[in-house]
């Protein structure tokens, strides 16, 4: 097995609809093509094209969302995405997704999330830990917990992946829609929802539109990670840093002042190398801010962003960072392990993950 695959890893920045296998997207496109709902050759060309600017990426997401609009498909892609991350030894996954309404499919934000949870339960290749401190007042929770425990103790010897969910607010949404997502996250806290993300096309939307919902989320104890600085917008970058999110994603278009502020606040950054290069938010790896943040000891975690859309994997990102920045395996292992400090799950999970890394340190060859 490839060394980077065999190393345990933590994934903190993965969008569900960006992490779909190409083969599944093609299958879904073919089905819709057969029903005359899309023109398959056009869709196929878009799916198989892997160099995409930031603008094209958001067109791609609009297309993916057409292919994944029903509950059954949402369940299927969730199951497959978790199985794919587990297959490359991701031991803790924070999966984020934007709850969606689709009247023609009888879908609302809650039923969308229920379909995601159904996907978590459908995973068969690995044991999925959805929550470690269940609330037994809720019958649905108790049922899932019982099922999970059955799985843990049935002697199958399956490996385990911890999965926690983040609900994303899309920058196209209104204040009310953002608030609805936060309320849904609060309602689903006992089902493994741990936080809120702000994502979507960075040239759309105003920070002040999302602020009331994000403040409410924070007051209620949800943890928050925000896409920050994907495009040069210094006013928004400062507003986001002043909000003091628990983590931020990307941090590409920062200037001197923004770096100084970020570093003094010590806010961990989710770094997505391939995504940044493919979308041309950073022109080449030799000028990527990973190097400066890593060398200055700033908290960072390597992530994929959209492993399907950018044809990458967490192992691939570690391998790429190692070769591009000349960092040895042992240090890369330490980087993966440090990411445990920035997860949104509680101390019990952190301790269990520490043990996973301790064990791996004894068996891996560096
Ligand atoms: C490339 N960098 C990025 N920047 C900002 N937002 C991104 C993104 N990559 C993905 N998304 C956000 O995630 C959605 C897809 O997953 P879900 O439908 O939520 O599961 C996209 O529509 C976009 O809102
Ligand atoms: Zn992202």
Automatic annotation (TrEMBL):
Residues 8-122, 155-354 form the Adenosine deaminase domain. Its cofactor is Zn(2+). Keywords: Hydrolase, Metal-binding, Nucleotide metabolism, Zinc. It comes from the Eukaryota. InterPro entries: A_deaminase_dom, Ado/ade_deaminase, Metal_Hydrolase. It catalyses: N(6)-methyl-AMP + H2O + H(+) = IMP + methylamine. This is Adenosine deaminase domain-containing protein.
């Amino acid at each position: 097995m490839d060394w980077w695959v065999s190393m345990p890893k933590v994934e903190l920045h993965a969008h569900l609809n960006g992490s779909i296998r190409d083969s599944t997207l093609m299958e879904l496109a073919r089905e819709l093509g057969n029903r005359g709902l899309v023109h398959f050759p056009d869709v196929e060309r878009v799916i198989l094209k892997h160099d995409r600017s930031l603008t094209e990426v958001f067109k791609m997401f609009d297309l993916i969302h057409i292919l994944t609009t029903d509950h059954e498909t949402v369940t299927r892609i969730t199951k497959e995405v978790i199985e794919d991350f587990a297959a490359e030894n991701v031991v803790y996954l924070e999966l984020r997704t934007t709850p969606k309404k689709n009247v023609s499919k009888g879908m609302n934000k809650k039923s969308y999330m229920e379909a995601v949870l159904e996907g978590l339960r459908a995973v068969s290749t690995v044991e999925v830990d959805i929550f470690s401190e269940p609330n037994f007042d809720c019958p649905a929770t108790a049922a899932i917990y019982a099922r999970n425990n059955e799985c843990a103790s049935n002697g199958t010897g399956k490996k385990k992946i911890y999965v926690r969910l983040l609900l994303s607010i899309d920058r196209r949404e209104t204040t009310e829609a953002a608030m609805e997502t936060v309320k849904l996250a609060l309602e689903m806290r006992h089902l493994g929802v741990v936080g809120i993300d702000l994502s979507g096309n960075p040239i759309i939307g105003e920070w002040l539109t999302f602020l009331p919902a994000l403040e409410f989320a924070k007051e209620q104890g949800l943890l928050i990670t925000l896409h920050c600085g994907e495009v040069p917008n210094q006013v928004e970058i400062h507003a986001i840093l002043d909000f003091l999110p628990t983590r931020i994603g990307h941090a590409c278009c920062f200037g001197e002042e923004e770096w100084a502020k970020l570093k003094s606040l010590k806010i961990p950054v989710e770094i997505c190398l391939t995504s940044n290069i493919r979308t041309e938010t950073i022109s080449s790896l030799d000028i990527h801010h990973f190097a400066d943040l890593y060398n200055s000891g700033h908290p960072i975690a390597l992530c994929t962003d959209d492993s399907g859309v950018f044809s990458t994997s967490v192992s691939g990102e570690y391998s790429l960072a190692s070769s591009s920045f000349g960092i040895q395996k042992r240090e890369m292992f330490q980087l993966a392990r440090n990411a445990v400090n920035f997860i949104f799950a509680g101390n019990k999970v952190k301790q269990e993950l520490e043990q996973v890394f301790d064990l791996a340190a004894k068996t891996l060859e560096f």
